[in-house]
Amino acid sequence: MIKQPVLNTSPKVSDEIRRTTCYMCACRCGINVHMKTGADGKQQVAYIEGNRDHPVNKGVLCAKGSAGIMQVTAPSRLRAPMKRVGPRGSGKFEEISWDEALDIATQWLAPIRAENPEKLAFFTGRDQSQSFTSYWAQGFGTPNYAAHGGFCSVNMAAAGIYTMGGAFWEFGQPDWDHTKLFILFGVAEDHDSNPIKIGLGKLKERGAKVIGVNPIRTGYNAVADEWVGITPGTDGLFILSLIHELLRAGKVDLNYLTRYTNAPVLVNSDPKSPDYGLFLRDEEGRELVVDRATGKPVPNDTKGIQPDLHGTYRHAGVTHKPVFHLIAERYLDPQYSPDAVAGRTGITANRIRRIAAEIARVAFEEEITLNRPWTDFRGQKHATMTGRPVSFHAMRGISAHSNGFQTCRALHVLQILIGSVEVPGGFRFKPPYPKPATAHPKPHCKVQPGQPLDGPHLGFVHGPQDLALKEDGSPARIDKAFTWENPMSAHGMMHMVISNAHAGDPYKIDTLFMYMANMAWNSSMNTKHVMDMLTDKDESGDYRIPRIIYSDAYSSEMVAYADLILPDTTYLERHDCISLLDRPICEADGAADAIRWPVIEPDRNVRGFQSVLCELGARLNLPGFVNEDGSQKYADYADYITNHQRRPGVGPLSGWRMTDKGLSNTGRGEPNEGQIDSYIANGGFWIKHVPEAASYYKPWNSDYQDWAVETGLFDKPTPYLFQLYVEPMRRFQLAAEGHGLRQPPDHLREQIKATLDPLPIWYPPFLDGHADPAEYPVQALTQRPMAMYHSWGSQNAWLRQIHGANPLYVPTKIWQANGFVEGDWARVSSPNGEITVPVVHMAALNENTVWTWNAIGKRKGAWALDRDAPEATRGFLLNHLIDELLPARGDGMRWSNSDPVTGQAAWFDLRVKIEKVKAPAEAQPVIAPQNSPVPPAPHDVKRKVTT
Amino acid sequence: MHPAKSIILFTSLSGLGFGLLAFLCLGVPPVTDWIAFVFFAVAFAAAGGGLIASTFHLGHPERALKAFTQWRTSWLSREGWLAVATLAVTGLYAALVIFTGTRIFILGALGSLLCVATTFATSMIYAQLKTVPRWNHWTTSVLFVGLSLAGGALLSGSVRAAILLLLTCGVLQFYAWKTGDSRLAESGSNMASATGLGDIGTVTAFEPPHTGGNYLTDEMVFVVARKHALKLRSIALVLTFLAPALLLLLPFTHLFAAIAVASHVLGLFTLRWLFFAEAEHVVGLYYGRR
Amino acid sequence: MTELPTQTDRKLGLVIDLDTCVGCHACVIACKGWNTENYGAPLADADAYGAQPVGSFLNRVHSYEIQPPDNAPAQLIHFPKSCLHCEDAPCVTVCPTGASYKRVEDGIVLVNESDCIGCGLCAWACPYGAREMDPSEKVMKKCTLCVDRIYNENLPEEDREPACVRTCPAGARHFGDFADPDSNVSTLVAERGGIELMPEQGTKPVNRYLPPRPKDVEIDVLGPLLTPVAQEPRGFLGWLDKALERL
Ligand SMILES: Nc1nc2c(c(=O)[nH]1)N[C@H]1C(S)=C(S)[C@@H](COP(=O)(O)OP(=O)(O)OC[C@H]3O[C@@H](n4cnc5c(=O)[nH]c(N)nc54)[C@H](O)[C@@H]3O)O[C@H]1N2
Ligand SMILES: Nc1nc2c(c(=O)[nH]1)N[C@H]1C(S)=C(S)[C@@H](COP(=O)(O)OP(=O)(O)OC[C@H]3O[C@@H](n4cnc5c(=O)[nH]c(N)nc54)[C@H](O)[C@@H]3O)O[C@H]1N2
Ligand code: SF4
Ligand code: SF4
Ligand code: SF4
Ligand code: SF4
Ligand code: SF4
Ligand SMILES: [Mo]
């Protein structure tokens, strides 16, 4: 008889569960934080798991989320406000009081505001309070505000919004429950981290097919049933070739195109006309189409018409053609045939044909019909919802190239041509999307001393008149967003701020105020150069960027470059608001928002940054931040979240607002003191489900439109048509061709003519024309590791063991050509610089591509890591090889290394050469260590809450 | 496998000690009084010291007594019992010899047998492991016992026995190496069986689970360069077997005997280092290393 | 207790779907978190912020590349691995102290830490690398199959499953009773041909792996391709006319 120890299989799990929102990344999953009473009698975090009720993660949690406990106890946490005492970059600081810190900030900022608010540049990283920080900046009056979108993925966002009123990620998602063919372009991880994994799991369970288009086969692409190892930067060609094939075979959804898109809209097709390429409109400005029944032009939304998709229509001596006619003409051209694009894309012609056939088969032979009656905005009733179950998702692999905007557009056009957007089995928007470009604000930049800005900083331009230019035509913004260099830069261009401020171009600034962006390291191109710019002095010995204020929660590389540090709390120690005004957490079936709340008290002298802005705003007398008597309006961020109203009845949080009938869940109502408690009681979030009749066809579904108004997303129904042809782009081209009052400088005319095509095009990545492809034959990429968030993960004792160093992965062909063996190192050079790093062989990789994990390399002295930590000795950044400007080409110009439409940083255009070298002692370049502003970390970690 | 000093010391010294004891208990050499005391002291010091060394390797030596409970299944537990029994029986025998001059043959014979059994038990700790194909073979036990006895013979001055045992063990060791080199390959465990993915194609390790080392890689994935190993094998063969045997074949001098012993012991340490260092654990397959 | 039970009432274990695992390491950290706070000593990390951090983990995710014959594209497989709760567990029988044992009621293999002397022999005996010595507490750690979750009456019913299974975003991990032929895990293994790791070791692992489904099978398939409605734009517009008529 075997004796076994007696085991308690029902130990107590915790004393209490506090439910809040994860912020180990921007996916914002719901978490259950299990609390136990520690030896000190205080509640301590014992264990973190996913919240099963939460709309985003439905109970699951990623590695980072589960490692939160190591983040909120990390030795790298900043402890108190600090002012710089050593030279910039050295990391020498003195801890000061909050009073002193806020005094300093006020002394620096108040005069700027009084004299010239544009001398403040306020840029925030991947925070989730942009509706708040932009409100603050607007109150301050500077035009120089943006978040990180310009270096992240504005191509994707802008292309999606201009084309169809929303893009991937937070804007929408595949219909995971119904789709039968899912094609993923250029995604390693994305923000929708857990939802994508949950979705892929569903597809796998159903046996639906997944195709991964990516030069690298890891992660999602590794589980894909088919891998298309495309040549980087050529997705646009591949997609347009698919369109070519589908058009040739007539496999497009004509019904969908005529009803829901601008395919029938008439376009001025007379090259001599000043309106060449613009839509034909009636006196009321309505776009006209030809009705097949009468052959007459009528407004597109006229009831009961049969819009024609081709033919020519002459009006006032000018020939007009429907958009679809132009599409057919363009994409049936043999330049887009599979045979023509095979070489460039690295995908055989047969394979392109086969994939086109597969898309067509699933779209048109396996359609799904749901028995859900609905009514469209024209008043027509439909008995069912029918969809084409082909869905796509894409992210930075296609957007972070200099041809990314057009590539993203191409993908959306493909989705629309087969009728798979907002239909069962296709792609679905998440509220507050769909929302067309026309429903977004335009950029504002009018500066007046002591006054707020004339409107929101960022938005969507519809032609040259909307650019952010001063009266003399020079850029109004320090980042040169919304200028002729990149007219549609909807998210601003954070990656240009430091170099422009350093150069004093377009003007000098006084204070650079940054929040949550590691600009002296992994979020900058040419990191070393940026460090030099941050520390560079002018002739009189003053720093070229006179003052830098920075808010971080941890001892990052950027901390060393600030003059004043405002230390933030960690995500479990503060209030946050994930708002529908901003970047919410909605799912296709519901509008949702969420909060964070302090589930633990900070044990350091730190404050939530938003609360600090509330106080600083009051000290600076910013409108919106002071009461009429001049006193501080919002005591802290929690107060702001509860009481601020953006429009009457609409505030940061939509749940539990007060109406005359009591607490309401419509999304509208008066502020309510108990709101945050209601959120806490509900698990930290609020969700309002989309009614079934409104679940698809949202842009044209009157039930959805009414629901959106009720919920406060719009003030009136806003149905719209998808823009296969983006007319605003044509307006910029027209200006470049010499029309209109505002015209681009001559050196930019050709670029605008060539790249702002209103129908998707493909052109080679810009670097190809600047770096000699023969000298630099290899493409170099980075990928997000699923278990790391940019630079934050390395301070996490658990996560850093998974990714403590990053090798460069090299494909078989290059591996063999260089005679590499295990343990070898290589020098990798681009026109911009060189690095020497360890290499590792990988077979499942495009044969001309090398890659590494992003942001693993660390500067010595940062993040409370030992100086000999592998992150600092073998880890490296590819960023040293990338520049924000392209190499000179002999035209006397330094062209920007970004997309000419939006200014999106072209991280993935990088070309390199690679050669075997003797292993150095450490990865090169070695950056001098920074002093650590926090005490050394303990040697061992063994955390368990014990009483 | 990681060649831990404590375990190398333990297996070498306890082997030598028990080997010597085995001879002493059979009355070889037929020493008495203080000479017997010195001989037995050396033997007990080696055996006991080895056993103590083995506890350095334990995470919780203070709980070592618990190791006696599982003799029904565990060779380590059995080894513990046998070692204690051996030390008790041989201790009694030694005491009688040293202090009373009596030799109880049966007791001595039992002691010798226990010595061999203990060394065998030690060997089985390794030989039982299917996970280390190189060890999982009769040669492991035979060599452990053989080496123990050879060392015993050498230390006890049984020249003819020593020469015979040393040369036999040398040949056996050579054979063990020869056959051991291919045993992992023959074991049927490989990347394909470890991952179950062999049906698709050739499997290679891509990324390790963690970028740094871990207990498993530190403990079980020790890789010695082949060239290096070959050199060490030759040195070990010469030091452990050939040199002592040759020295013993020469006319006896104490100096030569001492050198022979020193050479053997040094060789033994090298052998044991190789025994561990060259042993490939199948878990290495998961890390693409062996 | 190092004798193995001749039979266990249930055979609890995991099925891991290699067709679905995206290699996110979520299960690794959920496991680390749960088991640090629960069963036995916390899973410690030595040199946690230094040059050579070494922590104990009960579950680690490997990845392998596979080169199929005939130059088909190479594949990459993420491969989580924890204790397989073997029926014939060599790690148990070698243990000198009885700290290692296999539970009669459900077959879970456990280490009773207060009996463990930290000799490491069980880790040597395990072919799969499923046991790790804690760098701080110096006792043997291994997957407990979350024995303190699966029966835990302080947890809601739906949470009585291993931490790694509960957290896996892709749903690649399944927990159940292999002794019951109708259980979720038995069904999956039957349907998808679940594989045993290193069967030649004779350990009879309970956990099973679902092999990846065939990949890239259609790359060279030539048909059925699309039939063009027309070769030129003009012909296409003609087709369009007719198609619009039919709408
Ligand atoms: N080579 C290459 N470089 C890239 C990319 C690439 O693909 N390849 N991707 C680019 C993209 S898309 C992005 S978004 C950027 C990201 O780059 P960054 O925006 O620099 O991202 P993080 O490293 O996350 O750094 C943000 C900073 O926020 C701090 N922080 C973390 N939590 C808090 C908090 O709660 N409060 C405060 N105040 N601070 C906090 C961190 O300590 C860190 O210093 O990198 C870009 N850089
Ligand atoms: N775990 C984790 N999650 C994150 C982040 C993180 O740091 N860690 N960062 C967040 C942020 S800020 C962002 S912006 C998102 C980004 O999410 P992703 O868009 O997934 O970002 P990347 O990891 O840069 O992946 C880009 C992918 O595109 C591929 N690629 C590169 N060039 C091309 C190309 O020309 N064509 C195709 N088809 N593919 C190409 C690369 O191989 C890579 O797989 O992730 C967010 N989520
Ligand atoms: S994906 Fe992971 S890190 Fe990001 S919010 Fe969700 S659980 Fe947290
Ligand atoms: S959590 Fe699931 S998908 Fe992620 S590594 Fe583990 S088994 Fe694979
Ligand atoms: S996997 Fe290893 S530790 Fe687990 S039961 Fe099997 S042999 Fe023992
Ligand atoms: S390490 Fe502990 S559990 Fe393992 S064999 Fe030794 S005593 Fe048993
Ligand atoms: S079952 Fe529990 S202990 Fe085992 S790997 Fe999963 S989480 Fe870890
Ligand atoms: Mo990003």
Describe the fold and architecture:
The complex is a heterotrimer of chains A (947), B (290) and C (247). The model of chain A has no long low-confidence stretch (mean pLDDT 96). Chain A is α/β, with parallel strands linked by helices and 947 residues long. Helices cover 24% and strands 17% of the residues of chain A. In chain A, the strands form 11 sheets. In chain A, strands 5-4-25-24-23-6-7 form a 7-stranded mixed beta sheet, sandwiched between helices. In chain A, strands 32-34-33-36-31-35 form a 6-stranded mixed beta sheet. A 4-stranded parallel beta sheet of chain A has the order 11-10-9-21, with helices on both faces. With 290 residues, chain B is an all-alpha fold. Chain B has one domain: Formate dehydrogenase/DMSO reductase fold (Up-down Bundle), CATH 1.20.1630. The model of chain B has no long low-confidence stretch (mean pLDDT 95). In chain C, 21% of the residues lie in helices and 19% in strands. Chain C contains 7 helices and 11 strands. Chain C is elongated. Chains in contact: A-B, A-C, B-C. Chains A and C meet through strand 3, helix 1, helix 7, helix 8 and helix 9 of A and helix 1, strand 2, strand 3, strand 4 and strand 5 of C. Bound molecules: ligand MGD (2 copies), iron/sulfur cluster (5 copies) and molybdenum atom. One iron/sulfur cluster binds next to helix 1 and helix 5 of chain C.
TL;DR?
The complex is a heterotrimer of chains A (947), B (290) and C (247). In chain A, 24% of the residues lie in helices and 17% in strands.
Overall residue-averaged pLDDT value of chain B: 95
Question: What is the number of strand segments of chain B?
Answer: 1
The CATH topology label of chain B is Formate dehydrogenase/DMSO reductase fold
**Biggest sheet details of chain B:** none
Total count of helical runs of at least 4 residues of chain C:
7
CATH class of chain C: Alpha Beta
Category from helices, strands and their pairing of chain C: alpha+beta
The CATH architecture name of chain C reads: 2-Layer Sandwich
Approximate helicity band of chain B:
55-70%
User: What is the CATH domain class of chain B?
Assistant: Mainly Alpha
Mean pLDDT of chain C: 95
